[in-house]
Design a protein that fits this description.
mainly alpha, two-stranded antiparallel sheet, 6% strand
């Protein structure tokens, strides 16, 4: 059973995925998010990075339909979304890989790390305020070198989705809570 903190994090994440802000997540929301990221990072359709991201997005949507869409309406409400996050296998097999695919898009030079500017560009499409983006980067850049490595990001993603520690740095991955 998810804790109150986890439910709060999952609710914030719902807002990031509800691209059209209509209170439901559907295939269009997922497509809009991916399209925004690919446009931001100049990832052309059909390229390997584009195919990888679209593949993760399609897996995310199909798994959401199977795990979260309890009423079968092909939309995921906030309640369905939050309830579906109580499945560690969904988090490990779908959402964390989706987050890592996003990280790969942001790593535009392929050096295995994301700069403040690259992270900012990725997070601005999710509706995070400039202040939240700056705070998130500062916390995620654990060693303070001006970059978030894949290892740091992976740790943050696991913290966000799995940790019940209110002080875990990954809690800020999707912006300030509450």
């Amino acid at each position: 059973m998810a804790t109150a903190l986890q439910n709060q994090k999952f609710s914030v994440l719902f807002d990031r995925f509800d691209a059209d802000q209509n209170g439901k997540i559907d295939q269009t929301d997922i497509d809009l998010i991916v399209q925004g990221w690919c446009t931001t990072f100049e990832i052309a359709p059909g390229t390997p990075k584009w195919r990888t991201m679209v593949g993760h997005a399609n897996k995310l949507w199909q798994d959401l339909l199977g795990h979260a869409d309890t009423d079968g309406d092909k939309e995921v409400s906030r309640e369905e979304w939050v309830n579906s996050m109580d499945k560690p296998e969904f988090l490990e097999d779908v959402l964390i890989p989706f987050a890592l695919a996003t990280y790969e898009l942001a790593d535009t030079d392929g050096d295995g790390r994301v700069s403040r500017e690259e992270m900012d560009r990725a997070q601005q499409h999710s509706g995070m305020s400039p202040e939240d983006r700056a705070q998130s980067f500062a916390v995620l850049d654990i060693d303070g070198d001006g970059y978030v490595t894949k290892e740091e990001f992976t740790t943050a993603a696991r913290d966000f989705f799995l940790s019940t520690d209110a002080n875990a740095p990954g809690n800020l991955l999707a912006g300030k809570l509450g």
